[in-house]
Description:
Layout: E1 4-9, H1 14-19, E2 24-30, E3 35-38, H2 44-50, E4 60-63, H3 68-71, H4 74-82, E5 91-94, H5 96-100, H6 106-109, E6 114-117, E7 123-126, E8 129-134, E9 145-149, E10 154-157, H7 165-169, E11 176-180, H8 194-204, E12 208-212, H9 216-221, H10 223-234, E13 238-240, E14 246-247, H11 254-268
Parallel strand pairs: 3-4, 4-5, 5-6, 10-11, 11-12, 12-13
Antiparallel strand pairs: 1-2, 1-14, 2-3, 7-8, 8-9, 9-10
Amino acid sequence: MQTGITFLGTSGEISITGKQTRASGGIIIKTDECQFHIDPGPGALNKAADCGVNLRENTAVLISHSHMNHSNDINAVIAAMTHNGLDTKGVIIASTEVMKNNLITQFHQKCVEKIITAESGKKIGIENVEIQATATDHNDPSTIGFKIFTPKFLIGYTSDTAYSNEIADQYKKTDILIINCPFQEKTSEKQLTIEDAAKIIKRTKPKLAILTHFGKKILGTDPLYIAREMQKELGIQIVAAEDGMQIDPISYSAELKQKTLNIYNKTTD
Length: 269
């Protein structure tokens, strides 16, 4: 299985999702042995097909919370990954509200091997990967983010959240930090703004920060421009995700950089 991160969507506001101005199918993270599908919103199956992603290969589906952009297509994804239950497989990791609200039907719950309800701090081992649920401050109080520890890299995903130093500090030492950043300015929603995203990046110093989950105003300004300006200011590599964008996480692995440094040092001794 090829290692990589694929964005099946970058929509972060219902007006964008409704028109599919930006897709909303979630994020795929592939490691050497596993494929994780984070937050399969509307259109997940179509966008996976467009991007050449085989959902049958999903090892686990991670659902941060119950809002439509993050959970709408969970049953469709389960059906696709299990041949509608003919091949019982896979793990579902979901916030408490996802299960409390019965967003996964009784039938589809029987299609997978295991369903794990996760709260902040809970750690789950799958194959050679550890997944840790992280805290958020969002309108759905059960919302969680994720840290995905693989043998070669560490990825953080903020999910939807307002800013606090404590929330930001959870993502220190991540190689790649995926930040949901829908708004340019503060609103009544508990979500990150451009300024908040910059504070998280400055505080955590990832090898690569990826902005995604954009609202209408940010798309009107141009996320690529915003990311470039933020990178100039902070001196940290920052990109704005686009639908279908693929990233090789190994390129940003602290472990890989350390190995490269060791080889360089030995050569020059």
